[in-house]
Amino acid sequence: MNDIAYIFSHLVSGLVDTGTIYIFFRSFFIEDNSKRRRLYIAFILYYVINQCIYFFLNIPVVIMTCNICSLFLISFCFESSIYKKCLSVVFIYIICMLVETIGAVFSGICISNFYEVNVDYHSVTGLFFVRLITYFIVLLLSKYKNIKRGEIVPKHYWIIFISMPVITLHIFLSFLSMKRNEVIILSIVIGLLLINMVFFYLYDKTISSIKKQYEINFHKKQIQFYDKQMTIMRDSVKLTEKIDHDLKNHLFSIKSFLDNKKFDLATEHLLDILDYNVSVKNYISTDNFIIDSIINYKISTSSNLNIEFIKDIMIPADLKLNSFKMTVILGNLLDNAIEASLKLESNRRILINIKYDKGRLIINISNTFNGIINGTLHKISTTKSSRKHGIGLKNIREVVENDNGLFKIDIKNNMFSAWCLIYI
């Protein structure tokens, strides 16, 4: 009867444990609604497989291996780097394992051999104690929101992040093979648990710091855009003042040429005025300062690269846009388009289409490219500097989709097109 009660309790507590791990994964990753069904199936399989292995084998090393492999496979239901997936799996397993060990010690049970069948642990109270403590710890750690933001972390940071839970696992397994009293084991396990929780906090703060650095860099870009636009506007005003000042003299000269039937000289004089007027390049002028500043800056810095820019922009001058988001979206799209165009010897062409219609801003940036694609349409790069290009597309997708917008990539006839739909 006790065995039946324990089996039933283990099955129920396993459901709680699976739900807790699901919450833990959501602390690390942003859930993709399109993959939700696959994610739920993965967790159901995780629950069934682990329960079967526990009841039919119940060898700690087999259970541990199965758990880690299952968690790693589940991590592929989320879109992220392999480094973050490895960190999440190891960290989730370490936290759950340490809490379970604490519960076992409190229940008077300790695993003596990691490679033999464990038949001693039959504490219903211990089971629910472990699941409850794990659940509250996961709820506490899930309060840290920076971890799931997906900021790009340098590789040497990942080595440090992953090494901590791996070292913890090594220390823990080493102590299992040693004869120690319960107080020493409990002290060490609690200490390791607290260290890893503090490390989780530091990891979150590191991501936050990196995020702030990205924001600083974006603000610097905005300052460059605005400075260039202000220079264009200032030079245009000065030029207009000069032309206004000399307008009567110019008109008098042209009239004199026409009166004397010197049409060639009149035409030449008009062309001189026009050339003087376009000496200050203002590539677009929608009267929307944010859009104008970004596009004028990008085109002006590419003026000597033999790239043809074709522009079709129709937006209200008073359209309220978030300058930070526009810098991420439009700045990265144009950077990627310019970079890809430079790989061509000729036919360098970039099309800029921006429309506003009934609360929706539609941005389409298309460019010719060499036809070489690395990756899939969801995670793609078209140039040698693939890491930087991939980061830019990832940042665009996050900004757009965080506002329930749409981001789409299309490739046809050596033309790379990126589409953004943003709700204003």
Briefly say what this structure is.
The chain is α+β, with helices and mostly antiparallel strands and 424 residues long. The protein contains 11 helices and 7 strands.
How is this structure best described in words?
Strands 1-2-3-7-6 form a 5-stranded mixed beta sheet. A two-stranded antiparallel ribbon has the order 4-5. The chain has 2 domains: 2-216, no CATH class; 283-424, Histidine kinase-like ATPase, C-terminal domain (Heat Shock Protein 90). The chain is elongated, with a radius of gyration of 31 Å. The chain is built from 11 helices and 7 strands. The chain is α+β, with helices and mostly antiparallel strands and 424 residues long. The protein is 64% helix and 11% strand. It starts with a helix and ends with a strand.
List keywords for this structure.
single chain, alpha+beta, 5-stranded mixed beta sheet, 64% helix
